Amino acid sequence: MSTTVQCEASGGIAILTLNRPDKLNAINYEMADTLLALMDILEADAAIGAVIITGSGDKAFSAGADIAEFSESVRRGPAVGVRDFVRRGQSMTARMEAFPKPIIAAVNGIAFGGGCEVTEAVHIALASERATFAKPEIKLGMPPTFGGTQRLSRLAGRKRALELLLTGETFGPARALEMGLVNKVVPHEELLPAARALASRILHHSPLAIASIIAAVTRGLNVSIAEGLLVESEQFGRMAPTNDLREGIDAWIARRPAVFQGT
């Protein structure tokens, strides 16, 4: 497996570290492919219940896509650029968004371009007080390509998203929090412990229910409220015959902690 992403696992939590610190953890094709491969592995691993993504070093979560690399694809024409660059990045962020186990971004520094789009795509994000964000693609003469034109507007609202997309200006963690891009801002040295603690709180619950909630929210965002309610009903229907739901109800009635088996 490529060294562009480091993977460590303990206590049911996998930590994926974007590992190109000399390039501010810019996402090249190899890194994107490695992330996709690791998500396949982690989804199938019953011992892993949650994933944390962070960046190597003290400067960056990810400065975005590797411009030198994708510029070569662009020079080869639109078809190659879309195939090699756009589809690869969109597949990566779509996989994160729909991943059935919670993914938490621990944004430890610069999160520009593709790094910001990863933050938008994952389920929950915590930011260090040192984090900085930007949507600088317009300065290259292009729109964001890993889903940034779509997810930021859904998170922050159309006008706030367009201001950031059309100016390319940087913004800090406080504004990211206010816009809903991140859930919480914490002191830098507490970032990974806070992400681990959050993941551990989630892992107390049924993994089937967690996956069901993620599926309902992810699918429901892209349909009408009526269709979303049907998705919600469908997810409940899938949970109804499970041992986890019976255990949760029995434990609540008996006033004891539930012990979920994921069945």
Summarize the topology.
Blueprint: E1 5-10, E2 13-18, H1 29-44, E3 50-55, E4 60-62, H2 67-75, H3 78-98, E5 103-107, E6 110-112, H4 114-121, E7 124-128, E8 132-134, H5 148-156, H6 158-167, H7 173-179, E9 184-186, H8 191-203, H9 207-220, H10 225-239, H11 243-254
Parallel strand pairs: 2-3, 3-5, 4-6, 5-7, 6-8, 7-9
Antiparallel strand pairs: 1-2
Helix pairs in contact: 1-3, 2-3, 3-4, 4-5, 5-6, 9-10
Low-confidence sequence ranges: none
Q: What is the averaged pLDDT score?
A: 96
Q: What is the CATH C-level name of the largest domain?
A: Alpha Beta
CA-CA gap between termini: 31 Å
CATH architecture of the largest domain: Alpha-Beta Complex
Number of strands: 9
Q: Looking across the biggest beta sheet, what order are the strands in? A: 1-2-3-5-7-9
Reading the helices and strands in chain order gives: EEHEEHHEEHEEHHHEHHHH
Number of helix segments? 11
Shape: globular
Looking at CATH, the homologous superfamily of the largest domain is 2-enoyl-CoA Hydratase, Chain A, domain 1
| Helix amount | 40-55%
